[in-house]
Amino acid sequence: MKRIRLGAIALGSVAALGLGLAAPSIAAPESGTTVPTYQEFKASTLQDIDKQYIVNGDEPAGTNADLRDFYDRMVGADAPINGLIVNTVGGVDDKWSATQALNLTYCVSNKFGTSKTNVVNAMNQGVALWEGATSKVNFTYVPAQDASCTTRNNAVLFSVEPTNTTQYIARAFFPSTAKRSRNVLVNATSLMSSGSWTPGNILGHELGHTLGFRHEHTRPEAGTCFEDNNWRPLTPYDKASIMHYPQCNGSSSDLSMTDTDRAGVRALYGS
Ligand SMILES: [Zn+2]
Question: Which listed CATH number (3.10.50.40, 3.40.390.10, 3.40.50.11090, 3.30.420.130) goes with 81-271?
Answer without folding.
Answer: 3.40.390.10
